[in-house]
Amino acid sequence: MARTPAPGTRDTILTAAAGLFYEHGVRAVGMAQVVEVAGCGKNLLYKHFPSKAELAAAYLELARRERDRSVAEALRWSGEPVERLTALISEIAETVQRPGYRGCAFRNYLTEFPGEDDEPARVAKTYLGDTRAEVDRLVAESGGDGLLADRIWLIVNGLYGGPPSQARIAVDWVAELVPSCRGDKTS
Amino acid sequence: MARTPAPGTRDTILTAAAGLFYEHGVRAVGMAQVVEVAGCGKNLLYKHFPSKAELAAAYLELARRERDRSVAEALRWSGEPVERLTALISEIAETVQRPGYRGCAFRNYLTEFPGEDDEPARVAKTYLGDTRAEVDRLVAESGGDGLLADRIWLIVNGLYGGPPSQARIAVDWVAELVPSCRGDKTS
DNA sequence: GTCTATAGAAGGATAGAC
DNA sequence: GTCTATCCTTCTATAGAC
């Protein structure tokens, strides 16, 4: 009964795929499963995403947009570089504590497809490189050196790889590490 | 060539499977591929490992034995708790710098099979829990508190999740964090 | 002949793609 | 829906060592 191309179809499919891919992993989820959750036909899925790799790439690009938006939101009220840096770490800490969190989508994909060099892998690697660059930039602007940037990147990686219970420890630690920061930790 | 049951068959199969599983991921490797690399028939594979899950569990148990052996070797010459702790971190740092390193086998499996609770997942989780407990114990024996243990565990997770280039930074940092340790860092 | 191991086909389910 | 390919698993058939 539907003649009009249904404007939000692509988003509907992508949202369904993103939820499944993130929760169960890209390899574990089949296209039929995506179709079932999205509630559309297979032909429509392949019309918008000609292959699973392209769907996975779109999923990671969506994940990136959400991350960028969340980080931008967190940095909105921060003025000085030091505050911006600690706000970034706090945002990551909040992220890993969210219910349903199952690790970093980009790191997860690279783990699921090691050595691959397709488009989703490039999206994931680009995100990680950009994030690392942003940490470097914020640390430099905060008056920190390369060593501090390396250490904070180590904490960020630990944050993504470890249990959510360590989020607060990471945030407090970074606040302690960054120079000229007003100490606010309770203990 | 075959009437005698061929003594080293199980190890041959397991070694082949372990190499494939670690390099490409468990999901990406098929049983036929294991058979091909091991150079045996499918019957023999299923005789020793009745299912892929059991083969994966054996792979992780082998990985654990190798890790335990490597850690025990690294701690062999260390006497005091502080030295043992730094030696443990150094061993992990060396591990992530080895050629062909593709991440922690246990974390990789849990990423490939999120939410699963089969035997390989239990082996992986047990390993991570035991490692965490060992860090806690070494830190406590070194005179450190719970916060220091949390921080070092954060570094360990970052070490496993990040690029190998950060290995040295992690080692130096831990040496700096642990109390009553002779500072030896150059910068 | 007996036993084991290999190679390959078969079964049944599911994958991605049309 | 259908097609093809591949997944894990099982089974059959053949070859070789005792």
What does this entry look like structurally?
Two copies of one chain form a homodimer. The first copy, chain A, is mainly α and 187 residues long. Chain A folds into two domains: 8-50, Arc Repressor Mutant, subunit A (Orthogonal Bundle), CATH 1.10.10; 64-181, Tetracycline Repressor, domain 2, CATH 1.10.357. Helix content of chain A is 69%, strand content 0%. Chain A has nine helices and no strands. In chain A, α4 packs parallel to α7 (119-141), α5 (81-97) runs antiparallel to α9 (167-177) and α8 runs antiparallel to α9. Chain A starts with 8 loop residues before the first helix and ends in a 10-residue tail after the last helix. Chain A binds chain B through residues 23-25, 27-28, 102-103, 107-108, 111-115, 147, 150-151, 153-162, 166, 169-170, 173, 187, and chain B through 23-25, 27-28, 102-103, 107-108, 111-115, 147, 150-151, 153-162, 166, 169-170, 173, 187. Chain B binds a DNA duplex (18 and 18 nucleotides) through α2 and α3.
- Helix fraction of chain A by DSSP (H/I, runs of at least 4): 55-70%
Indicate the mean pLDDT of chain A: 93
Which percent band covers the strand fraction of chain A?
Answer: under 5%
CATH arch. level architecture of the largest domain in chain A: Orthogonal Bundle
- The total beta strand count of chain A reads 0
How can the largest sheet of chain A be summarized? Answer: none
The pair of chains with the biggest contact is:
A-B, 32 and 32 residues
Provide the domain count of chain A.
2
Structural class of chain A: mainly alpha
Measured between the Cα atoms of the first and last residue of chain A, the distance is 64 Å
Multimeric status of the protein = homodimer
Characterize the overall form of chain A.
elongated
Q: Spell the H/E element sequence of chain A.
A: HHHHHHHHH
CATH fold group of the largest domain in chain A: Tetracycline Repressor, domain 2
Number of helices of chain A: 9
